[in-house]
Every structure is written in C-alpha cells, then in structure tokens.
Amino acid sequence: MLTFNRCTLEARVVDITTLALDAIVNAANTSLLGGGGVDGAIHRAAGPALLRECEALGGCATGDAKITAGYQLPAKHVIHAVGPVWQGGTRGEADLLASCYQRSLEVARAAQCRSIAFPAISCGIYRFPADEAVKIAIGTVLATLPRAPDIEKVVFACFDEAMFARYEAELKRRQAPPSKPV
Ligand code: AR6
Fold it and tell me: How far is the CA of 40 from the centre of ligand 1 (A)?
C-alpha cells in the first residue's frame, strides 16, 4: 500500500466485478460494445442494460475514457477506458496507456467518485508488456492525483499473483524514501 496526500493506492488479487467502489474501470475497445477478458466479465455481471447505455455513447478513442452506470454491479459506475494494442512500442503505446489512467481519473473526478479500481489495462488480449504497464499505471495515477483531490482510494485489481507482485514491488519502490547520500 502507498499513501499519497489523502489517497491510498493498493494492489489486490481480486475479480474487479466484485468491488463495491464508486467506480471500476473497464479495459474496453473502441466500439464500447463489449468483448472478452475483463470487459466480458463486467458486461456479464452488470447485465444487458450496460450494453444499451454503451450503444448510445458512440464508441471511444484509444487513450480516452467514458463513464456509465454500474447497473447490477456493486460498483456505482463503470469507466470504460480504451488501451492501446501493443505493436512493439513504437506506435505511442506508452503515452496512450498513460492517457487511459489520466482520463479515467478525470472522468471519475467529474462524477464525484472517491474510490476507483483499475484492471491492468492492455495487459491481456492487447499484449502490453506487464512490467512497463505497471510502472505507467502507478506513475500516471500519482501524477494525476493532485488534479483529482477528492479521490481517496485507488485499487489496482490483479487477476493473478504474478501481476499482484509487480504492483506491490512498484508501490514499495515509490513509497521508499530517497536513499541518503553516502
Ligand atoms: N478482474 C480483474 N482483472 C481481470 C479480470 C477481472 N474480472 N478479467 C481479466 N482481468 P484484458 P486488454 C485482467 O484482456 O488487454 C477485450 O476483448 C487480465 O488478466 O481484459 O486491455 C476488450 O473488449 C489482464 O491482466 O484487456 C478489448 O477488445 C487485464 O485484466 C480487449 O479485450 C486486462 O486484460 C482489451 O484488451
């Protein structure tokens, strides 16, 4: 766990669809019409009304995020963020992934959310290298939080222990005080 101003950042091994927070983030695609991975799990758990609201949104650009209600989910809102497909790292993938985290927090703030959970966006079907993605996720959340001061809790929902270990290591590295000069 890491504390930044009044906000706690923590990693958990958990199915994101079970979290009763103000918002959970979906790793969506540009159509916003559902898919596999966490997107499929969120749509299944939320029920068909989520797809109907998504159909009215007109899609979403890569790197951007749009909000809906949570319907049958315990979370109040779903923030649908569209991560980049990994294409080797030379197509702006890192900036687009960072933009997902930044835009999600901006959208959460506008909806008065105080708590939010992120999956490891782009780290599944979109094949973004997980070590780099985790650094981008935590770094961008920390950089954006000063502009989203009402957010009190950020959960990084990990589907497996290997992903959890990456988040834990990066959170610990960021929490550690700078080493003293010898
Ligand atoms: N809770 C938390 N994390 C999960 C869950 C869950 N229920 N299910 C999967 N993960 P992915 P992407 C993890 O593939 O790479 C869809 O078809 C998973 O282990 O869901 O951004 C969309 O429609 C991985 O670490 O998202 C898009 O077309 C992470 O969530 C495309 O996949 C993200 O994996 C998006 O691909």
Answer: 8
Distance 49 CA to ligand 1 centre (A): 21
- Which residue ranges of the chain lie beneath pLDDT 50? none
Ligand 1 lined by 83 (C-beta under 6 Å): yes
pLDDT of residue 178: 67
Identify the sign of the CA torsion 1, 143, 88, 32. Answer: positive
Tokens encoding 62: 């890569």
How far does residue 34's CA lie from ligand 1's centre (Å)? 11
**DSSP states of 107-158 as a string?**
HHHHTT-SEEEE--TTSSTT---HHHHHHHHHHHHHHHGGG-TT--EEEEEE
Can you give the pLDDT at residue 47?
A: 98
Q: Which residue has the tokens 């790793």?
A: 27
**pLDDT (0 to 100) of residue 176:** 74
Catalytic-residue membership of 95: no
- pTM for this structure? 0.97
How confident is the model at residue 129, as a pLDDT? 98
Q: Alpha carbon of 49 to those of 23, 27, 32, 40, 70: distances in Å?
A: 17, 18, 13, 14, 9
